[in-house]
Amino acid sequence: MNQHVPASDGDALAKRNALVLACAQALGGASPSIVISLGGIVGSSLVEDQTFATVPVSLMQFGIACGVIPAAMLMRRLGRRDGYVIGALIGAMAASIAAAGAGSRLFWLFCLGTFMCGLYGAFVQSYRFAAADTATESFKPRAISWVMIGGIAAGVIGPQSVYWTRDLTPAAPFAASFLAQGCLALIAILVVIRLRAPPVAAVKTAGGRPLGEIMRQPKFIASVIAALVAYGLMSFVMTAAPLAMVACGHSVGDAALGIQWHVLAMFGPSFFTGRLIARFGKEKITALGLILTALAAIVGLSGLSVAHFWIALVLLGIGWNFGFIGATALVTDCYRPEERVKVQAANDFLVFGSVAIASFSSGGLLHAGGWTSVNWLVFPPVAIALALVAWQALSRRAVPA
Q1: What value, to the nearest 5°, has the Cα angle with vertex 29 and ends 381 and 237?
Q2: Which of 80, 81, 281, 346 is the most core-located residue (most Cβ within 10 A)?
Q3: Is residue 2 a part of any domain in this protein?
């Protein structure tokens, strides 16, 4: 059972939990970066039809979508801490299965492993909401940002794990990298047991509004669409990037380092994203993230050198940070404390379901139309999301508080 936490702890407790979760993010966040770095490359070596090369990465995203609601239900029953321990154990098992699939050259087994990595990712994705659970309204954006800072370490740990372990098992290429991923998940258990958040089940659940009513709120619609566009486009482009780099004659090492810079750019701005949101507002920072995502596509269309790929991936990462953290902060305005579990789960299901669709389509579009088509498809969703965020911002100004 989780420890009882007195309400008087205030933001001191929230800061402690955010630091614990940031460390857990550093370890758990390394898992998807390993799958993203290697999933398409390993997949392409296991199938003849290259349209299916990115299916392992897409299945990880699909695993996140499938896992968010069961993970929320589990944590509602057992509490955040015990749920996160179970999630890390799933992550260790998943990495072992992926390693076995890569080593035995069984595409279906490798896909099963990456899908289960997504189930682990469903727990990791909720770290940001867990940090906000015990925070005051003014500290929530910063608490979310603090957790995302852990992704900076993940951005180094994941790709560097690939770099240092990729050749350890010549007979089973990259299997050692997935075993390293499993070890990181086990280490994460030693971190998440330090969490002192109260059990989710302890929160009053009576009196909450029906989920449909909450989801029909214009601010919920705008925030979720902004989140799924920010995350979906990031996944769409990022999934294709390593394969596109290799297809353009760049090395696997260049592709892995490109993902490293991308992940660092995803989480590095978290040092100040919360303060930017507090100063300029959630809508403005979310909109800035969407604009940077479009700028990444412009760079991607302008050349095929390593520098072009890396700059595009960095801009894509920064755009994701501002867009996704801003949209997450907007979602926290849409529910009451007793409604948070179901709304958070619904939000993540919608976001990561869309991310999975984007990831599945990425490989086929890359194979059919090339890197250029991937980048051109960024602009329409960004325009729609920007319009909705702007509309919500104007509506908020027009209605007195």
Answers
A1: 30
A2: 80
A3: no
The distance in angstroms from the start CA to the end CA of the chain is 40
Which residue in 12, 69, 43, 29 sits closest to 263, CA to CA? Answer: 29
Do residues 238 and 155 touch, judged by C-beta distance below 8 A?
Answer: no
Residue 270 CA to residue 94 CA, distance in Å, equals 29
Residue 202 neighbours by CB distance under 10 Å: 13
Structural domain includes residue 75:
yes
Q: Give tens-digit pLDDT for 189-248.
A: 999 999 886 655 444 444 577 877 888 888 888 888 998 899 889 988 887 888 889 888
Q: What one-letter code names the amino acid at 223?
A: S
- Does the structure show a pLDDT above 50 at 1? no
C-alpha torsion sign, points 302, 303, 308, 309:
positive
Query: For residue 382, how many other CB atoms are within 10 A of its CB?
Result: 24
Report the residue count for the chain. Answer: 401
pLDDT of residue 3: 44
Residue of 213, 175, 223 lying closest to 323 (CA atoms): 223
Indicate whether 389 belongs to any domain: yes
The enclosing H or E element of 271 equals helix 270-280
Q: Among all chains, which residue has been given the structure tokens 């979760």? A: 21
CA distance linking residue 67 with residue 79, whole number of Å:
16
What is the rounded CA–CA span in Å between residue 11 and residue 243? 44
- Assess contact for 282 and 326: CB atoms under 8 A: yes
CATH number of the structural domain spanning residue 198: 1.20.1250.20
pLDDT tens, position by position, 98-109: 999 988 989 999
Question: What kind and span of H or E run contains 164?
Answer: helix 140-165
CA–CA dist 144, 166 (Å, integer) = 33
Nearest to 261 by CA among 283, 241, 281, 280: 241
- Print the SS3 string covering 282-341: HHHHHHHHHHHHHHHHHHHHHCCCHHHHHHHHHHHHHHHHHHHHHHHHHHCCCCCHHHHH
Q: Which domain holds residue 355?
A: 7-398
Secondary structure (3-state) at 251: coil
pLDDT in the model for residue 401: 40
Q: Measured between alpha carbons, how far is 75 from 81 in angstroms, rounded to an integer? A: 8
On whether the CB atoms of residues 324 and 230 are closer than 8 A, the answer is yes
363, amino acid identity: G
Residue 1 lies in a domain: no
